Amino acid sequence: KSELSKVVCCGFFLQVLNEKKLQEVDSLWKEFETPEKANKIVKLKHFEKFQDTTEALAASTALVEGKLSKNLKKILKKIVAKDAHEQLAVADAKLGGVIKEKLNLSCIHSPMVTELMRGIRSQIEGLITGLPSREMAAMCLGLAHSLSRYKLKFSPDKVDTMIIQAISLLDDLDKELNNYIMRCREWYGWHFPELGKIVTDNLTYCKCVRKVGDRSNFASSDVSDILPEEIEEDVKAAAEISMGTEVSEEDINNIIHLCDQVIEISEYRTQLYDYLKNRMMAIAPNLTVMVGELVGARLIAHAGSLLNLAKHPASTVQLLGAEKALFRALKTKRDTPKFGLIYHASLVGQSNTKNKGKISRMLAAKTALTIRYDALGENTSAEMGAENRLKVETRLRLLEERGV
């Protein structure tokens, strides 16, 4: 008596009726062209109905992850234990290994099984009777949506998305702030040009303009909470002899409104930077210690995710962000660039011009190790990053002392 194989597919089991047909893998699809032909190859052995979508989702996620769910284990013990001498065909080799280990059942996984599964899926409605096609389609669609939401919710890369969005927004805020501040200085400079030379800090400048308004108010205004005493006296003295033109109250109101925007965006930028710093220390602590949170976040954003960045060799990490210069150099047969985004790391900035290439190469090598440790390791400490940073700093000091 030949052994009859069974196929496990989510909530039902199918028994193979004609094993000889399965040996012809290349032409197996012909046996599933119609429901009538499919029913001659396999028949329904057992059907297990899910109670609700939650149970179906739990079973599906377990199958996707190659795990043996409680319901499947219970069904296998009850149904397959009666025919323990037969083989169980499974689509996932990992799941087959778990079943064999836990239940001591013989499982097979081969191209034949893969082709068989494909045929079963194509004629699933004909093999399982009593389920209208509309209900089957609605069930599949609902389960697909639930599974997608689960994957998105528990995706290990989803935190990388937060970092990518945060650093992109931070760069956009910096550009907007520069434009707003430049416009504010030029606009108010027509009225009080001397203030721009005395107060160099942009945020302090905007706070002064917002509090005082017209330059004639500086004499009677107290800006000691914004400016140091010496600078405050210089500003008041300059306001009395200013060469600026007179402006209307409406002009001043618009300038003050622009200053409000600058201050508000600056405060939000500070808040966003703190968020990015905390997120980077939680997700990639060793990378953050090596190159800083801003450079680390830009490397992750440029690669697409922390896992993608971990797949890059050190030479690619060194040149990330300098692709245009690299291909231009290769095309013109000139010297290739020595650094990309990693140029903005503090360790590269500390070295002199002669040693920047050597330090960036060593920093990229150590950074690549820390990235892989953060992406693939289970430890969340930053000790490895601190050790590697110390090695690079030691190398930097040696180069500076030798004058190499």
From TrEMBL:
One of its GO terms (cellular component) is box C/D methylation guide snoRNP complex. Its main location: nucleus. It is found in: Nucleus, Nucleolus. Keywords: Nucleus, Ribosome biogenesis. Residues 283-401 form the Nop domain. Core component of box C/D small nucleolar ribonucleoprotein (snoRNP) particles; the core proteins SNU13, NOP56, NOP58 and FBL or FBLL1 assemble stepwise onto the snoRNA. Interacts with NOLC1/Nopp140. Interacts with NOPCHAP1, NUFIP1, RUVBL1 and RUVBL2; NOPCHAP1 bridges the association of NOP58 with RUVBL1:RUVBL2 and NUFIP1. Interacts with PIH1D1. Part of the small subunit (SSU) processome, composed of more than 70 proteins and the RNA chaperone small nucleolar RNA (snoRNA) U3. This is Nucleolar protein 58. The gene is Nop58.
